[in-house]
């Protein structure tokens, strides 16, 4: 068994590309080598800003061999009457690289054919890799690509390619470069070039000569360890942010933390502003003690500095300039007012025909009144005020510079300017969630987030601005998913259709491109797709999700309760037989409803057969329990009643002819089945279940 290593060296790659590249290149090599029948033990991949490396351990020196049968042309085409081969037969033999003696006749269901057996595989792995490596490099995916040398595209220009199978170079060309056994190290501390004699030596050469820490986890460990030590020197702790830490680890090849200081006067600024200045613009971390920021920051540079003080002062100078700006914006904004900002929103366009942000603010206020009556009536005036002021910070100086602080600054300014805490909290949280988790903690924040997102969704869908493929410029998928997550988190019993309808009516002076029915159908389907995606991602089986959604998803939280109950029910031994029984009922009713009408109620006098009489009595017996469990949302107990009902339904089908010729008897039996499905389909669409 051997070792193969491939290193692609390039100009500094954006940090956000690298994690996926590591996963992609390992996956592609795994798939292609399996396809080529080349055995290997495991694949490891690493990346830094200037290189992507894949190591394949215990890789076989040759492909596995295999004898296969290849069917050629029919005998009547491949052979002449005297038994000699025609041009078609000879062409087939030649194309397979075998001799005339290797050909034979084979009988198939379609007739007699000429066939051969031949050996495939057995090629040296190094030869396989020569064609495989450029193919994989060319097929690596990037959110954005650059184009150079013969229109070759890649995330950044490739500068070198090292490819070694043990001590042999795997020869190929790509992007105007020839593969070699030459690598390069750190731009400053170990530039290179360095010759690598064997695949197993690359990591050691990069570490000792090139001053590269190849492993992401090692870089992260070094940053955490050194950063924490520096923080202790000022009796503080680093305010580590995981997403930023990961980004920084992909920005450096040789991380070196440096502790900087800033003037204590800037501590008057909100913590959010200070951290945004450090994290977003400087890729630095704050330092805290007793949960309060200290006048220090931690930054990570990409080398061992000769003059650390000069570098530290340079970082401090840049941060000071940003904090001076932030301080100016802060004091300027505090001299303004929400009333003034509301007027300025008249000049800020929300979205083309949907009017101004001031008009959106009015709609949000009305939506908050609608939601507040249902979920927070004791704070109705505060909720309406929160909706009205939610977008005011968009015209503030601070948000003009730090766009990511929208909503956050609005909440902070609301507190500073004497607004009710409910108003301030709602504004502060209403852009949440911005990613996975991180939901609004307060009820007022949750309601304003829902209001803001549904207003955007309704407006965009009314204009037929609907996401297609990967394109979603207004983040409508994220908005819909945000509403769903908030409703589930806060366990809100909310009618989605009523909320959409109310929001739609608020756009009274807007001319939508879709009529109301098209609009509702498309937006409802959009929510259904988001629910399906979310719950399947959480591990619920597709058919269980379809069954829950098929009954209804107007009340999202209620749908989730039914989904969980269905999921539990599906784990019972009797699940499959129960589904078959009640699915049969559902299918009969769906089919017959298209062909005839049913009675409005069951006629007891028309129940002639003992089996239908027993089923009727059982339905009457369980009717109260069904209603109680539906009212109390005890869907698990509701579904368990089906196991009690099932024998009576089976007995009915075994002994009663539903589709009899007597019209009244047939309609009465169908009416009884329809009454059953009316109850069952409140919980699940049994027709959607596949067993």
TrEMBL record:
Gene source species: Desulfonauticus submarinus
Transmembrane regions listed in the UniProt entry: none
Keyword terms, alphabetized: Aminoacyl-tRNA synthetase, ATP-binding, Cytoplasm, Ligase, Nucleotide-binding, Protein biosynthesis
Pfam families in the record: DALR_1 (PF05746), tRNA_synt_2f (PF02092)
NCBIfam families cross-referenced by the UniProt entry: glyS (TIGR00211)
Domain (DALR anticodon binding) ranges: 581-681
Gene3D superfamilies: Isoleucyl-tRNA Synthetase, Domain 1
A biological process from GO: glycyl-tRNA aminoacylation
One GO MF term: ATP binding
UniProt protein name: Glycine--tRNA ligase beta subunit
Family in the record: Belongs to the class-II aminoacyl-tRNA synthetase family.
Reaction equation(s) it catalyzes: tRNA(Gly) + glycine + ATP = glycyl-tRNA(Gly) + AMP + diphosphate
Any one Gene Ontology cellular component term annotated for this protein: cytosol
Subcellular location: Cytoplasm
């Amino acid at each position: 068994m051997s070792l193969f290593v491939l290193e692609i060296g390039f100009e500094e790659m954006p940090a956000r590309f690298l994690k996926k590249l590591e996963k992609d290149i390992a996956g592609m090599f795994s798939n292609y080598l399996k396809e080529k029948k080349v055995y290997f033990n495991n694949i490891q991949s690493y990346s830094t800003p200037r290189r992507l490396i894949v190591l394949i351990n215990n890789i076989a020196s040759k492909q596995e061999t295999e004898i296969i049968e290849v069917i050629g042309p029919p005998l009547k085409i491949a052979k002449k009457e005297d038994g000699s081969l025609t041009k078609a037969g000879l062409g087939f033999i030649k194309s397979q690289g075998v001799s005339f003696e290797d050909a034979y006749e084979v009988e198939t269901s379609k007739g007699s054919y000429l066939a051969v057996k031949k050996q495939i595989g057995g090629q040296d792995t190094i030869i396989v890799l020569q064609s495989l490596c450029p193919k994989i490099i060319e097929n690596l995916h990037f959110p954005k690509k650059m184009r150079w040398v013969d229109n070759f595209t890649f995330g950044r220009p490739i500068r070198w390619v090292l490819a070694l199978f043990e001590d042999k170079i795997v020869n190929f060309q790509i992007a105007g470069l020839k593969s070699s056994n030459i690598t390069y190290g750190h731009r400053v501390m170990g530039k290179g070039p360095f010759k690598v004699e064997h695949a197993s030596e690359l990591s050691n050469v990069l570490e000792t000569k090139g001053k590269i820490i190849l492993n992401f986890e090692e870089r992260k460990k070094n940053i955490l360890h050194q950063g924490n030590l520096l923080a202790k020197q000022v009796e503080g702790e680093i305010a580590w942010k995981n997403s930023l830490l990961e980004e920084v680890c992909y920005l450096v090849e040789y991380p070196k933390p440096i502790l900087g200081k800033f003037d204590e006067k800037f501590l008057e600024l909100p913590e959010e502003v200070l951290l945004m200045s450090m994290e977003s613009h400087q890729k630095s971390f704050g330092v805290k003690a007793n949960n309060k920021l200290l006048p220090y920051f931690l930054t990570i540079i990409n080398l061992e500095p000769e003059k650390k003080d000069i570098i530290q002062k340079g970082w401090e100078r840049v941060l000071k300039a940003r904090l001076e700006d932030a301080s100016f914006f802060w004091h300027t904004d505090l001299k303004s007012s929400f009333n003034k900002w509301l007027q300025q929103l008249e000049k800020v366009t929300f979205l083309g025909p949907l009017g101004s942000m001031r008009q959106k603010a009015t709609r949000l206020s009305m939506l908050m009144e609608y939601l507040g009556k249902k979920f927070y009536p004791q704070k109705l005036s505060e909720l309406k005020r929160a909706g009205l002021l939610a977008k005011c910070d968009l015209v503030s100086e601070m948000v003009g510079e730090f766009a990511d602080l929208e909503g956050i600054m609005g909440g902070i300014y609301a507190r500073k300017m004497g607004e009710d805490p409910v108003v301030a909290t709602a504004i502060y949280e209403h852009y949440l969630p911005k990613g996975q988790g991180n939901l609004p903690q307060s009820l007022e924040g949750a309601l304003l987030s829902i209001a803001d997102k549904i207003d955007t969704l309704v407006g965009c869908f009314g204009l037929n601005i609907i996401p297609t493929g990967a394109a979603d410029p207004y983040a409508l998928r994220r908005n819909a998913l945000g509403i769903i997550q908030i409703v589930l988190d806060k366990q809100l019993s909310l009618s989605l259709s009523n909320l959409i309808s109310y929001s739609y009516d608020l756009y009274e002076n807007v001319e939508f491109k879709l009529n109301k029915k098209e609009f509702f159908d498309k937006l409802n389907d959009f929510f259904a797709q988001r629910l399906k995606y979310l719950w399947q991602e959480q591990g619920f089986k597709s058919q269980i999700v379809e069954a829950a959604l098929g009954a209804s998803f107007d009340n999202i939280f209620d749908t989730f309760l039914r989904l969980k109950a269905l999921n539990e029910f599906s784990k019972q031994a009797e699940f499959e037989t129960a589904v078959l029984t009640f699915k049969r009922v559902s299918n009969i009713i769906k089919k017959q409803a298209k062909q005839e009408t049913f009675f409005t109620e069951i006629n007891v006098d028309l129940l002639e057969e003992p089996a239908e009489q027993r089923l009727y009595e059982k339905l009457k017996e369980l009717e109260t329990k069904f209603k109680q469990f539906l009212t109390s949302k005890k869907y698990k107990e509701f579904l368990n009643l089906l196991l009690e009902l099932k024998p009576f339904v089976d007995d009915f089908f075994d002994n009663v002819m539903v589709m009899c010729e007597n019209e009244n008897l047939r309609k009465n039996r169908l009416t009884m089945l329809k009454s059953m499905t009316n109850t069952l389909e409140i919980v699940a669409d049994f027709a959607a279940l596949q067993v």
